[in-house]
Amino acid sequence: MVMSPEPTPSRPRGRPREDRLKPDAPATNQSLEKALGLLKVLSAHDGMSLTELSREAGLAASTAHRLLATLSAHDLVSWDEPSQKWSIGIEALRIGMAFQRRNRILTAGRPEMLRLMEATGETVNLAMLDGFEVVFVAQVECEAPIRAFFRIGDRRSAHASGIGKALLAQLEDRTLEALLKRCDLPQYTPKTLITPEALRGDLSAIRARGWSLDDEEAHIGMRCVAAPVFNEYGEARAGISLSGPSLRLSDERLPQLAQQVRETAARISALIGGHLLNPLSP
């Protein structure tokens, strides 16, 4: 069984509305917004009918079809006649690869992620902070029948994520406080930190020891250990994590796993010319 985390919050997601993030942002092109919305919806599925896609995107079927025709002309989406479904096109892959080419963390991180997965037998993730969410950009799955799984591009609330908390802990106080003022802390499990005070306390402990723990805060029965990856300016630009069932990420194994994750983050940091603000403990 593959665990594909998709928590359901008891309150709205933690990502702030764009108009609250950028109150002075200029007006956008509505047709382009709708087309990009279709791409985002398609990226979360392996194929969708026009009816399914238009419904989820909140568009009339005729509008969605017109936009899809334009996107298809540029190979950003593709139409499969036998299944009568739309999916992401090959040109979208080429565009996405541009992000990977310019991002040294992804290139340097892959071999180290594989090394960590082989050493621990657990799934390894790489994610970046975007507002009050983390976006998963790479993953190396383990072979265990029960394991953590995230789609590349998936978003998760930072306060209920190992990587999210590892990166939040590295923010300047004023930046963190600004996020807490405009973002909710939805509850996913009884262990989710849902008050700013509780989150601040945990982030302080994370900052001191250099690694974070998602202790069944997003999913009951699943744990995640994470550490930040730093650039040449000492800024935390991404996070590396180890995810798996709580029975395997037990209290007894936790210190060793945390050290392995932190050492992996340190090696990736070194490969991109970065450095840790806090040296590794012995």
Break the fold down into its secondary structure elements and pairings:
Elements: E1 2-3, H1 18-21, H2 30-43, H3 50-57, H4 61-73, E2 77-80, E3 85-88, H5 90-102, H6 104-120, E4 123-130, E5 133-140, E6 147-148, E7 155-157, H7 162-168, H8 173-182, H9 196-209, E8 212-215, E9 222-230, E10 236-245, H10 254-271
Helix pairs in contact: 2-3, 2-4, 3-4, 6-10
Total number of beta strands: 10
Radius of gyration: 20 Å
Number of helices: 10
Mean pLDDT: 86
Gap between N and C termini, in Å? 37 Å
- The multimeric state of the shown protein is single chain
The structure class reads alpha+beta
Which stretches of 5+ consecutive residues score pLDDT under 50? 10-24, 278-282
Helical fraction equals 40-55%
User: Could you tell me the strand content as a percent range?
Assistant: 15-25%
Note the overall shape.
globular
What characterizes the major β-sheet? Answer: 6 strands, antiparallel
Order of helices and strands: EHHHHEEHHEEEEHHHEEEH
Query: Main sheet: which strands, in order across?
Result: 7-5-4-10-9-8
Q: Mind explaining what this structure looks like?
A:
By secondary structure, this protein is an alpha+beta fold. The chain has helices at 18-21, 30-43, 50-57, 61-73, 90-102, 104-120, 162-168, 173-182, 196-209, 254-271, and strands at residues 2-3, 77-80, 85-88, 123-130, 133-140, 147-148, 155-157, 212-215, 222-230, 236-245. The strands form 3 sheets. Strands 7-5-4-10-9-8 form a 6-stranded antiparallel sheet, with helices on both faces. A hairpin with a 5-residue loop joins strand 9 and strand 10 (236-245). Helix 2 packs across helix 3, helix 2 crosses helix 4 and helix 6 runs antiparallel to helix 10. The radius of gyration is 20 Å and the shape is globular. It starts with a strand and ends in an 11-residue tail after the last helix. It holds the Pfam family HTH_IclR. Residues 29-90 form the HTH iclR-type domain. Residues 1-10 have a biased composition (Pro residues). Residues 91-274 form the IclR-ED domain. Residues 1-29 are annotated as: Disordered.
